[in-house]
């Protein structure tokens, strides 16, 4: 009987989770905010590529970026979660969340570089292809998570499989310590997935 | 000071990555070593170069942009190589292969 009640509780949590995802889907970003974010990204790209801050250059870049963001605002920002007002959201995105991601990735890169150097010296490798589950469903979130997994040495994404409810990654892992999907997911993805779930759905 | 430490670290990572490329048994594990050269080695050497060279800020900033582009392109390339190798039938020398089990 106890097993049965555990099963029911799990199902209930699952249904709750899916309900929360659908509630988020109903709150997609409004078009004005999408245009602002697209404008900011293309303007940053323009500044980085040209590399001078003369006022004529700034004027030309902002005009071109406005035209681009008016036409193409749906492609880049379709998967971002909507919460709160625009200004606070943008400030928190640029000053809290992106530095947080860089911080997480720098420490993961350092740690896994040392690990793979140790494997190259001692040759104590134990490779395998494991399957990892993720709660992210949007294309952008899946892409960023798969790229972060591949960027850290020691794990390499072979394929992504989007089922109805969840996304599955097939990861080639140089040192398999566990075959359990949850524990392997915790070790491979680290904090990146929790960070991504705050921004994308 | 920190730039010389970064240069030393990048060089060491490059050496161990080359050692890994030579010593690891198959395509996929060698790709791990090659990825390590790119992320750890090239990135830390680029940061050190941006700190060291006597140049205007725009040039230094462009070195950091190069780092960003390496971080963007490197996972794509290694994923493409690994998937292409798998699809063309190179068997990985692994303990467990869940990808083959699911795609019979």
Which secondary structure elements does this structure contain, and how are they paired or packed?
The complex is a heterodimer of chains A (201) and B (104).
Chain A: H1 2-26, H2 31-50, H3 55-76, H4 86-122, E1 128-134, H5 139-151, E2 155-162, E3 167-173, H6 181-189, H7 192-199
Antiparallel strand pairs in A: 1-3, 2-3
Helix pairs in contact in A: 2-3, 5-7
Chain B: H1 2-23, H2 27-52, H3 57-87, H4 98-102
Helix pairs in contact in B: 1-2, 2-3
Overall strand count of chain A: 3
Summarize model confidence as the mean pLDDT of chain A: 81
Please report which band the strand proportion of chain B falls in: under 5%, 5-15%, 15-25%, 25-35%, 35-45% or over 45%: under 5%
How many domain units of chain A? Answer: 2
Number of helices of chain B: 4
DSSP strand (E) fraction of chain A?
A: 5-15%
| General shape of chain B | elongated
Tally the helices of chain A: 7
Order of helices and strands of chain A: HHHHEHEEHH
Measure the end-to-end span of chain B: 55 Å
Oligomerization state: heterodimer
Work out the largest interface and the residue count of each chain.
Answer: A-B, 38 and 43 residues
């Amino acid at each position: 009987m106890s097993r049965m009640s555990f099963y029911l509780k799990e199902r209930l949590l699952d249904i709750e989770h899916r309900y929360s995802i659908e509630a988020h889907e109903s709150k997609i970003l409004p078009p004005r905010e999408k245009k602002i974010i697209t404008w900011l990204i293309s303007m940053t790209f323009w500044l980085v590529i040209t590399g001078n801050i003369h006022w004529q250059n700034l004027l030309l870049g902002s005009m071109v970026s406005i035209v681009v963001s008016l036409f193409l605002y749906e492609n880049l920002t379709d998967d971002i979660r909507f919460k709160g007002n625009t200004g606070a959201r943008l400030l928190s995105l640029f000053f809290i969340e992106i530095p947080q991601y860089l911080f997480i990735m720098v420490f993961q890169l350092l740690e896994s570089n040392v690990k793979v150097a140790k494997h190259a010296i001692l040759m104590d490798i134990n490779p395998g292809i494991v399957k990892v589950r993720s709660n992210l469903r949007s294309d952008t979130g899946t892409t960023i998570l798969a790229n972060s997994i591949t960027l850290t040495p020691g794990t390499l994404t072979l394929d992504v499989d989007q089922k109805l409810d969840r996304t599955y990654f097939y990861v080639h892992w140089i040192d398999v310590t566990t075959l359990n999907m949850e524990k392997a997911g915790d070790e491979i993805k680290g904090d990146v997935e929790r960070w991504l779930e705050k921004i994308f759905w | 000071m920190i730039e010389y430490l970064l240069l030393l670290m990048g060089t060491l990572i490059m050496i161990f990555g080359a050692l890994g490329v030579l010593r690891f048994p198959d395509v996929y594990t060698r790709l791990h070593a090659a990825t390590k050269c790119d992320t750890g080695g090239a990135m830390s050497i680029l940061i050190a170069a941006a700190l060291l060279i006597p140049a205007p800020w725009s040039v230094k900033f462009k070195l950091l942009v190069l780092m960003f582009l390496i971080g963007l392109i490197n996972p794509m390339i290694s994923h493409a190589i690994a998937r292409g190798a798998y699809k063309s039938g190179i068997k990985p020398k692994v303990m467990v292969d869940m990808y083959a089990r699911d795609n019979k």
